[in-house]
Amino acid sequence: MDEGTQLLDGESLYKRFGAPLEKDHHGEYVAIAEDGSVIVDSDDVAVIDEAIKRFGSGKFIFRRIGYSYVDKLR
After folding, report:
1. Whole-model pTM?
2. Could you tell me whether strands 29-33 and 60-64 are parallel, antiparallel, or unpaired per DSSP bridges?
3. pLDDT digits (tens, 9 = 90+) for 5-63
4. Residue 60, SS3 per DSSP
5. Residue 23 and residue 6: Cα distance in Å, rounded?
6. Closest to 65 (Cα-Cα) out of 36, 40, 33, 46
């Protein structure tokens, strides 16, 4: 692993910044950066594309809101 690379704590980030979105965005997709910035959309590819642009590759977690897994990959 590079010195500048560190693993994000996905579960903690989701609990803190993703779980509050469950009521209004259940089933949509979220990218969460380490600083708590979020991108939410119903289009999984759009979320990932925007997250890479805004946060950088590997600098965010990606989840389906309200689920413990992502059930669809394109």
Report:
1. 0.82
2. antiparallel
3. 456 788 899 999 999 999 999 999 999 999 999 999 999 999 999 999 999 998 999 99
4. strand
5. 31
6. 40
CB 31 within 8 A of CB 48: yes
Using DSSP's 3-state secondary structure scheme, residue 33 falls into: strand
Residues in the chain: 74
Gyration radius (Cα) of the chain, Å = 12
d(CA 35, CA 16): 11
**The residue to which tokens 């600098």 are assigned:** 59
Q: Where are the beta strands (DSSP E) in 1-74?
A: 29-33, 38-41, 60-64
Report the distance separating Cα 58 and Cα 4, nearest Å: 11
Two structure tokens written together for 65? 């809101």
Assigned token pair, 8: 């994000």
Q: How far, in Å, CA of 28 to CA of 22, rounded?
A: 9
